Every structure is written in C-alpha cells, then in structure tokens.
Amino acid sequence: MTTTINDWLETAAERRRVFTADIHRPRYHFLPPDGWTNDPNGVIQWKGEYHLFYQHNPHGPFWGTIHWGHAVSRDLIHWEDRPIALTPSFDGPDKDGCFSGCAVDDNGTPTLVYTGVADDRQTQCLAMSRDKLLTWEKYQGNPVLATPPEDVRPLDFRDPWVWREGDTWYMVLASGQLSGGGVALLYRSSDLRNWNPLPHLLTGEVEMTGEVWECPNFFPLGDKHVLIISVWPRHSVHFFVGTFADERFVPESHGVLDPDGSLFAPLTLNDDKGRQLLWGWIDEQRSREVQQSAGWAGVMSLPRELSLDKSSVHTAFVPELQKLRRAHTRLNDLNIAEAVDVEGVKGSAFELRLALVRGSASRSGLILARSPSGEEETQIYADWEKGELVIDRTHSSLLSGVEQGIQSGTLPSAERLYLHLYLDGSVLELIADEQLTLSTRIYPSRNDSVGIRLFSSGGVSGPTTLEVWELASIWF
Ligand code: FRU
After folding, report:
1. What are the distances in angstroms from CA 68 to CA 71, 86, 475?
2. Catalytic pick from 7, 34, 39, 91?
3. Considering the entire predicted model, what is its pTM?
4. How many angstroms does the Cα of residue 384 sit away from the middle of ligand 1?
C-alpha cells in the first residue's frame, strides 16, 4: 500500500498531538513533530510558498543520524509538515549524515546543496526535486566538491551557501584555518557541479571569532554586503558588513547577533518582498536526560527581518506575526515604583511590547512566568547603572537539569528601552530597539507560573506603556 501525502500529514499531526499537555513545548514556533532539530537549512520561496528545511534526527531528541526535515508555509507563520527531504544513503557520501546547506533555483529545478558526511569526511552534494519540492533525488555525481584547500582543517569543510550572479554560481563554505581562526571559503562554478576555488572570502582570529566559522550566509543588504558566521566552539553569531566587488569582500565593521543568547546557525532568505529574513536554531537549555524524556529538542526562532543601519545589522520580528494576536491589554502612562502585578494578563504564549523611560530608577523591567507567590519567576530588566539588558533565570524553574544562568547584552540607550518580546512555553525571544536580540529558554515547573509584573528598584521609572497580546497556536 502506498502512503499518500494526506496519510503522512495525518500521522505527523498525531505525532504533534502527543505533546498537547507539555507546558514547555512552543505553540507558535516551528519545530518538527518530534525528535531532534538543530540548524535551519535551505530556506527558499517557491511559487509563493516558503519552504523551510532543517537538521533533524527522526530517531530521537538527540543529535545523530542527521536528516533534512521539511515544512512549508504560505504566510511565514503557519507551517505544514512535509516528508523528510534527505536521508543518509547507505554507502553514499552522506552515509553518516546530511549536514547543513541551502536551496537554489537551478533554471527551474529546485536544488538542495548540502554537506554529506562519510567516515568523518565532509563533501558537498546536490539533490533535485521534480515534483514541486516533495521528494528529492540525489545527484548521481555526488559529491560535487570533495577536497578542501591545503591551508584549512581537513575535517571541517561544510555548510554550503550558494547564490548566482548572472551566469556564475558562487559558494561560500565553512572551515577553520590550520594556523588558527575561522575562514569563509569562496568557490565559483558555471553549472553547480564543477567548482573552482577563489581566494578566501574572509578569515578570522581565534581570540575574536573562534576556530571554525559554521553556516556562513553572504548577501547584499542596503548598499553593502553582509557575511554572517556561527562560531565554533563558542556558539555565538557574528556579522561583518562591508563591500563585495571583483570577487573580494572588504569588511568595514563587525558585530554580534544575539550576544549571550541561544540563537545559533541562522539562515537567511531574500523573499519576494525584497526582505532579508532570518531564522535561527534555539537550542535546549536542559540536560540530555530531561530532553530524552520530553521526546523533542530544538526549535526554530521566529522569522526576523534584517536591515542595515549605517554599519550595523538591525533585526525586527516580521509583521506577519501580528496575525496570531488575540486578547489585547494596554496600559499607558504608568509610573513604576517597586513591583506591581499586571492585573488580568497572564500566560505562557504571548507577545509583549514595553516602552520604558528610566526616570530615577537604577533597575527597571519585567517579571514573567511568575508563580503567584514568586517561587518561580524570570526577570528581564534594564540595569541602567551598568548599561545592560539582563535576563535573569536564577529562579525560572524549580526543576533540576535546566540551565538557570544570567544573560545580558549592552542596552541600546541609557534613558529608555523599547522591548519587543515573545514568550512561547519555554522559548523566550526579545529584541530591544531593533538592535539587541536575546533568545533563551526557561522551563517553569508549575502550571500557574504565568503571572506578569513590572518592577523598578532604586527609584521610579516612567512613563511606561505596556501592551500584551495572547497569541494563538499555529498547530491545532
Ligand atoms: C551547526 C552545525 C553545522 C553542521 C550541522 C550538523 O550547528 O554544526 O556546521 O552542518 O550543525 O548538524
């Protein structure tokens, strides 16, 4: 008996339903039906639909036997599952895993460019679809690029990012220099199948940006070009802004996305509205044992739009997310001294906007996911004296095996804070003034850890405007 796509969709929905009562499982972020995910892969728009592929282990909530999962969306927000796109082939160059990569339109043929892993060797492979991106056929001539240059770490040669300029394809690849420091390798091809090396696109220094630059993205933004890389082993995401001419990139400035947060290995897409959209992997912050019993691990960030402000990359959540808004509460002109409960607003799936003026306070901000007597709570506040925005998870959870550290980034302004924040079960994503992004995970144990408070210490903060929207689930 053959399985139709509808049968398959029903099974995927049943697999999702198993987790209905799991308070830590997000309701409006994308994640696979079950099992493991890490990097987003191959995001592409095809005939108006957004396709998102992702690193996936269908055999359990742990990294291993890496496949490419697949989902599709018409509006960027609601996703429908698709059958697994890439499975390691017994005896193929990807027998030990189908690692990260991208998707391109090869003159009308949707084509995935990914890294195959076999016996620790990483090589670049292709797969094509002839049925509207539903099933994928691996190219017989795989791998199409097998030998790393001599000056880089031979076992780190992965994560192809490919684009076309006129008749020429370019590929940027991740590696690390033998002499230390990450490198973004650059290649050229006329047919996606034969690749010639060009001088390295950019190299880094170990102290600044780690040993290997994973998952490079390289694209025009405004009148500049931007290179985004994910640092191994330090797990941070950096961007370089500069100019690209005559196949050479000259960086002019450098910054960090999501400093101290959990966003990693982001992937971008230039959509038909001309927006450069970004998704990242937000990892679990709990032990392997807890992950194993949860049955799922890893989640995609909400889509964000990138823009260039002088020499810096700014991010904003996409406006399509407003579709999810339900009950709304707005409080205006509040002056906050000490802590006040926000009456009538509770939850663990909401969007929140806060506009806060420092006033005389030394600290001010929010408390979320608070149990009625405060046994569990997460604080998010401006430490005006230190100039930091802080997420304090010290009391986020009474559970063991979950991370509870403090995360912080530089406050964009010394006098005011515009915070845009999404909480979704255990996933917390915030952007301050479109400049500072922090993504993290919290795992409150109690069903009633859903309260919201405003607070200040050392003085009075105000005037403050707070808006909260309950958000709908994207699944059921
Ligand atoms: C980044 C990464 C990539 C690799 C993939 C494997 O998180 O290590 O470099 O392709 O994950 O799952």
Report:
1. 10, 5, 21
2. 39
3. 0.97
4. 37
